[in-house]
Input
Amino acid sequence: MISYLQIASLTKTFGDHVLFRDISFGITQGQKIGLIAKNGIGKTTLLNIIAGTEDFNSGEVVIRDGLRIGYLSQSAEYPAGTTVLQACYHSANATVRLLAEYEEAMNDPNHTNLEDILLRMDTFKAWDYETKAKQILSQLKINDFDQPVEQLSGGQLKRVALANTLIGDPELIILDEPTNHLDLEIIEWLENYLNRANISIFMVTHDRYFLDRVCSEIIEIDNQQIYTYKGNYSYYLEKRQDRMDNMNTELERANNLLRKELEWMRRQPKARTTKSKSRIDAFYELEDKASAAPESKNLNLDVKASRIGTKIFEAKSVSKSFDDLKILEDFNYTFSRLEKMGVVGNNGTGKSTFIKMLQGQVKPDSGMFDIGSTVRFGYYSQDGLEFDDSKKVIDIVQDIAEFVDLGDGRKMSVSQFLTHFLFPPEKQYGFVKKLSGGERRKLYLCTILMQNPNFLILDEPTNDLDIVTLNVLEDYIRDFKGCVIVVSHDRYFMDKAVDHLMVFRGNAELKDFPGNYTQYRLWKEEQDRLDKELEQAKNSKSPVAAKPATDVKVETKKKLSFKEQFEFKEIEKELPKLEKEKTQLEELMNSGNLSTDDLIAKAAQMGELIDLIDSKTMRWLELSEL
Output
């Protein structure tokens, strides 16, 4: 395989803080590698080093001459007044620079050097590049090529940056959290695009389904070193657990030996003999080995939620729109105790507006949200929280409380709480200004959770958080003794954290689906297939052209057999009963009275019931057309 990139003995530090030391690895043609590490370990820093935007302390980064590299950073910035199409030409690519020259010449009243530019554009086939740019933008649902970038939403700007990265036809693409701010439809499009493309990939992402389906190799940074796993994310989980089990066994053995050696050291006279010197030296080596940090144990963070009554909230005929954009129309819903709702839908369908209305931050045009008197919201917003950089991390949380109430008279210090969310002591007593972007998001999350809310509203909580923190948050939500609404495009997170979905389809159309995202996706694919078949069946019926009476051929409808007549009548009787059963099952699942296991079982039953209704309906249509 052709070598694209080689990193040898690379070390990067910030002051006395070592991100990674003497790491080495390579990227070859066709490799698709995912990079995994905790927040603050240096994932983005490593990507910036490879992209050439950040230096390093020692080591070597060798990139193949002439290699075309595309880099998608976490945040894209373009000069004010730049149009969408011009933003796609923001690149060091030679063809892109030529197109930028063309744009400048066209905007110049004198069209300076236009003839020379047109000649070079023909030579480099730059016209194809512009066509490709417009095609990719259209696939990413960006159709106004002349719109200034400052008018774009965060999700639209991310899609423009993504188009800018892809249209340069890179051989190696570096992606830093590519799914942030993208809706599910675009994430799945990008997933398919990268799987089909003959391209090498090195990326950081918290989206575990995306990681599992795109990458065939995982590199993990842990304790300043790297570990390589020749498989996708599922394979990585299995092999990493094997590695941690072996490490813990080895550390336990070292600790047992250390205890014995310590006893021996204490028994020795102060004047040590030459004969025992080797054993003394071995003792200190063993002490260093045993002091290595073992795999942290999973803690049960059963934080007490404030008492919540039976009344949570009721939406009564709520309507909301912005000009021609409808968000809700005559929306009615009663939220149940301990309900964990996931909110999904494309960007711009009103998900964030919905949760802001729920909290009174945005007023509905008509109707109301009737909130229970005991409800205490804990709201994690996309915008986050600005911290005083001159403060220490521990001071930020201690300004809120000294302890976290676990209930039954049990308390946890804020230091223990921070440790659970993967802030080690050296981070806790460090200054906020030294935190990475992901660590700042994690600190913001801690300030929300430690206030003992009984109703959590999490708006895109997975953005910029590392996978280990997401596991902690998922466990927290499952054990949370309150209500939860999660708005997220992270499919894996939604599958683990919620028990049903509210799907925003746009134009005030909502679908309450009793199951997780994967179950919804399978259901929707089946519905789309059935709709397509029905459409094809309708289109296949072409009217017969009128002919003279002498040529008219009378078409008689095929008569149903006795067996088919019986089947047709039976289906007509069964369908209303099945629909009634479906309605009763939906009411039971939305009651909030089912345990998690019962809810999972009912969701599976609902899937089977929907399949049965669909198949019966299709058969009824077939028989009715005979």
Q: What stands out?
A: Residues 555-624 form one domain. The CA atoms of residues 281 and 287 lie 10 Å apart.
